[in-house]
Structure formats: structure tokens, C-alpha cells
Amino acid sequence: MVRIGISSAWVATTIGLVTASVVSLDQRAPLTITVPLKKISTITNTSHLVANDYARLQHHHSKHSGNATTRVALGEASATNELNAYIAQTKVGSQTFDLVVDTGSSNTWVGSDTKFIAGSTGNNTGNAVEVDYGSGGFIGDEYTDAVSIGGTGVKQQSIGVAQLAIGFDGVDGILGLGPVELTQGTVQGVSEVPTFMQTLVSEGVIAQNILGISFAPIQGSAPESTNGVLTFGGVDSKLFKGNITYTPRIPPFWGISASSFKFGANSLGPNSTAAYLGFVDTGTTLILLPGPVFTAFLTVSNASVDPSTGFVAFPANAKPTQDISFVMGGTMFTMTPEQYLLPQAQYAFWGISAQQAQASGGYALFGNAETAGAPAGFVLGMSFLEFFYSVYDAENDRVGLAPAA
């Protein structure tokens, strides 16, 4: 388990970089707040990372497909603490916490690493809270308190305070940015709890429940970098190219559908008129492909699943040169090999030995959703989102994607 400390210098830099574009509500223009993020990674065993992504999807799929089985008590669960996440420094009351930016869940909570101490603005609601993510989770008490990011925030946000947390060493909890229905059944005595985005709107901090997210891959062999941006209340046109393609959200997540997948000129499916259903999730690292698409990809690319890393590996001296693409909303989204392959500069940091590197033509950041019990599903994780701007528009119940600038 590795803990990452975020330096006071970075805190000062972050606060200095925060920008806000605010206009009068009477002008009917959106109030927007832009906040930079930091990506940190403590990956030493990629197979653990892959297992975490599969466990997360398996939990999501079983819970929201109506096929959930009796879950193991959180205190009995096992979890590996391989961290690869974008972090938002978030102030709750008078304390500052490092929270994972997660569009695949909706509860905001603290207390995994830095323990929460209620101040004058904190109020214990008396309700218990429990959230399971498949790869970890927490149980505790639900509070209301002032919450702010980059100096801008709300006075009365519902937050969980962990008494027990599994799988979150090195961070303090989660900033939940998923749709509100994902909070159903998590807090005792209430049907849903307002998300941070909803509270920003209800308290008049922003005019529209629209979130834009920009990520960027870490360059070189560095383990961390300040290279992500959240825009609350709208989108930032400087962070994407061309037009945003919007499609209606498929509940309960930020769900989308894909009508086709291709590897170069090779069709990977679907083999019928039906589209595959998936969702966009900043809490997942890999790009999890539908089972038939994943199998077809291995065949046409001559790749295989490497048992030591869990990644898709190509034969030595056979680095792929073809793009992979999918169609959403009539628009083709394409990733080049340089985008979907793990950069060689990151090999050592991710626990890939020189011997493994020599024996491989590269490692693709793809996984098989069927392994997680979702054969026809897919997930666009941060390995995709680092090359595409994403928009989560609760005002119009839609999801948007565009190439990153």
C-alpha cells in the first residue's frame, strides 16, 4: 500500500490556478467554475488494477440489472489498494480532503485516510450510510456540511463520513459526480441524497447542472501530474476540438450506446442491428469492451491476455499500427495505437519488468466486460477519457463526447 502526499506547494498552485467565469443569472448565461485536478498513481501490480476494474463493473452490473446477490459484509471484503485516479482537493468544514473524481458513483464522502472532525458547520443527520463499489466501499454516518472546491462551494451538502473504508488507502474518499439515482438505498431513512452538482445549482452557485471534464495522460515516467480540469455549470470550449456529440443518457449511470466497433478496417461488431450499451466512468482505469468485440479484437490483432499483467499484450516485434474506433450518436471516435497502448516510459512504474517489456510488442489498456458479468456492456474509463472531453448534462439528461484539444 502506498500513500501519496500532496504537497503544500501543489495546494498553493491549485488555488492560484482556479478560475471562475460568473455572470448574472438574469442574463441567462451559465455560471461556470473551473477547477484543476491532480492525477496520482501508485500502481505496482497491474493485475490488481485490472481485477479492481472488473470487480467494480461486476458490482455495478449485478446491482442495477436486478440480479444482485447477497453481498459480503464490508468488514469481510478484501481489496487491493492500487490507486490510479484524478484527485480534487475538497474542503469540508474546515478540513481539506483528497477526493477521487468519480462519475460512476454519486455519494460524496470523506474519512478514509484523513479522519473527519465535525466543526461548527457540520451536522450529523443521525442516518447511517453504506456504499459498496465492488472493489471497496465504506460505512459510516451521513452529515451535512459546507463543501468547496477551489474556494467555491456550498453551505449544506450531504456527505458521508466513513467509520470503516476498504480500498481507499492514499485518498480520503470520493467526490461523487454520477446521476442522483445512484444514491438510492445508500443512506438510511431517505430515498436519495442530493449530489454536489445538485447542491451547487440549488444554492445558486451555478445555473445549470452540467459538468465538463478534461483529463490528460501523465507524460514520461512521472507518477503524478496536475493535468485535469473540472468545469461546473457548463463546458470549456478551449479543452476540446470540433463539436460535442451528445446522446440521451441511458440510466442509471452516465450511459451511452455504441453502434459499431472497428480495428483498422476490421469490423469488431455488433453482428446485428442491436447496439452495445455502456457508460462513461472516471473511476475505471481501462476501456472495457463488450465480450464479442474483445474476442474479435484479440483475433484480428493477434493479441492475447497476458496472465502476469492482466493487460492485452501483443507479440514481440508486432506492435499494432491500426486505430481502434467506435460509433456513438453517428460520430466515430478513434484512438491511435499511441493512445490505447501503455506508454513504455510508464512500464517500470506500473511494475512491468524489462524482461516483460522485451517479450511484448506493447500492452493495450483494454479489458473484457464479459469477464465482469456484462457480456454486451462496455465502459469508457480514464484511459479513453484522457484523449476525449466528456460532458455530463443533467439539465438535458444526456452525455457528450468530443476529441480533446
Strand content: 35-45%
CATH class of the largest domain: Mainly Beta
Q: Quick one: overall form?
A: globular
User: What class, by secondary structure content?
Assistant: mainly beta
Number of separate helices: 7
Low-confidence stretches: 1-30, 68-81
Specify Rg, calculated over alpha carbons.
20 Å
Assign the CATH superfamily of the largest domain. Answer: Acid Proteases
Distance between the termini: 35 Å
Considering DSSP H and I runs of 4 or more, what fraction of the residues is helical? 10-25%
Oligomer class: single chain
Family: Belongs to the peptidase A1 family.
Pfam families: Asp
GO molecular function: aspartic-type endopeptidase activity
Keywords: Aspartyl protease, Hydrolase, Protease, Signal
Description:
With 405 residues, the protein is mainly β. 15% of the residues lie in helices and 38% in strands. Strands 1, 2, 3, 4, 5, 6, 7, 8, 9, 10, 11, 12, 25 and 26 form a 14-stranded mixed beta sheet that branches. Residues 1-30 and 68-81 have low confidence and may be disordered.
Descriptive tags:
405 residues; mainly beta; Cathepsin D, subunit A, domain 1; 14-stranded mixed β-sheet; 15% helix; 38% strand
Question: What's a concise summary of this model?
Answer:
The chain has 405 residues and is mainly β. It has helices at 8-17, 46-64, 196-202, 291-301, 337-340, 354-358, 382-385, and strands spanning 19-21, 32-41, 84-92, 95-102, 109-110, 123-132, 137-149, 152-166, 173-176, 210-214, 224-232, 245-248, 255-258, 260-263, 266-269, 276-280, 287-289, 304-305, 312-315, 324-328, 331-335, 360-364, 366-368, 377-380, 388-393, 398-403.
